[in-house]
Amino acid sequence: MIEQVPGKVDMDKLVSLCKRRGFIFPSSEIYGGLSACYDYGPLGVELKNNVKKAWWKTVVQERDDMVGLDASILMHPQTWVASGHVEGFADPLVDCKQCRQRWRADQIKDGKCPTCGGELTEPRMFNLMFKTFVGPVEDEASVVYLRPETAQGIFVNFQNVLSSTRKKLPFGIAQMGKSFRNEITTGNFIFRMREFEQMEIEYFVKPGTDEGWFKQWVEARFNWYSDLGIKKENLRLRQHGKDELAHYARDCYDIEYLFPIGWSELEGIANRTDFDLKQHAKYSGKDLSYFDDETKEHFIPYVIEPSAGVDRSILAFLADSYDEEKDKEGLRVILRLHPALAPIKVAVLPLSRNEKLLPLSKEVYDSLRSCWMVQYDDAQSIGRRYRRQDEIGTPFCVTIDFQSLEDKQVTIRERDKMRQIRVPIEVLKPTLEAKLCGEPLDVLPPGGKKWLGFEAS
Ligand code: GAP
User: Fold this and answer.
1) Whose CA is closest to atom 18 on ligand 1?
2) Residue range 281-292, pLDDT digits in tens
3) Is the CB of 339 under 6 A from ligand 1?
């Protein structure tokens, strides 16, 4: 069952839009679905790729002190002993004696089953890691785990990256990829899944400089969400109390978002000290220290870890950008997604299906699709086609009409205020490029002219 904060976008509406327009489907739905697993459809995969691309651009491409990594999901089982996950990555589980439903004991308020009010068993610890086996023999010696976080792949590669890149402290390693947790309570759409994606950074620093770097990363990560369009009033920071800090953390902030289900964690930024590198050095017997050329000292670096969820970010971007406007034709549903995240950047729409418009329309379409994800749509009225693009967050529509055949000009219509400009086809591509990068619509390209929706100046 999905909970709902009054005044926020209705979660059911979001789920239904995602299904109807091909963003997100329940996993293996024809068999009744698999709880807490979801599939990204044609538009969802574009949105997801764009979220990951935007993260990579900010934390790797645009920084000198960061490099990337893509470690395997299956890792040596000792990894998880050293990290503390085999021992401690567990939640307290209770069963309802009446309806057999399972709950996390720390989420039960009155000691009774939330579904039927039945009596609950005593809590027992339940490890959240999925187990499987390598090789043909299914015995204890061949057990491996599906990683519950991507972070450990970074720690075990610390020396490999250091020696292959000759990076100096401070520097960080970024990685994104699938993680798996056998969560006890799920629901709330893609907020808590059993298979999900993370975008994680381990930023290695000299001990003593960790607090300064921690503050910088908290700020940088908060700004990433607001720079990509999330309203500041829907974001907040929450410092962990001493009693909730993970066993490895000295300090931790959550970036929280006001989801339709309430304020909840979007990303965690933790000061993990030297815990992980020390543990892996101890269990592997390898030297994971850093040699400082200047001071001639060996030491184990401290680590600042900004850890974000891809799926949770997608939910936040969708919830924050969802909007409805009443108009003459009924309801205009708009996803006001940042252009960098929008699955389709431009839609090419001939005014009608008249075959005279076809050659020029296809020519325009072909010239744009090598640059961006572009959709061609000539079915139904132009108004309906604009609505369809608004609902999936397409920032710009390009309309080809009969006058275009004469003057070789087309109309660009933007999503948010439905303003329009008319531009020569020869400057269409650079104009769209500039607008997608944030140039205001009223900055006109050579030969362009204001059309509809602008205030008279
Ligand atoms: N390496 C640290 C770590 O994994 P975490 O707080 O457990 O920390 C980091 O997870 C982020 O991963 C969360 O803020 C959330 O965005 C995402 N995440 C964690 N569990 C999730 C789940 N079951 N479903 C979806 N996203 C999840």
Assistant:
1) 309
2) 999 999 999 999
3) no
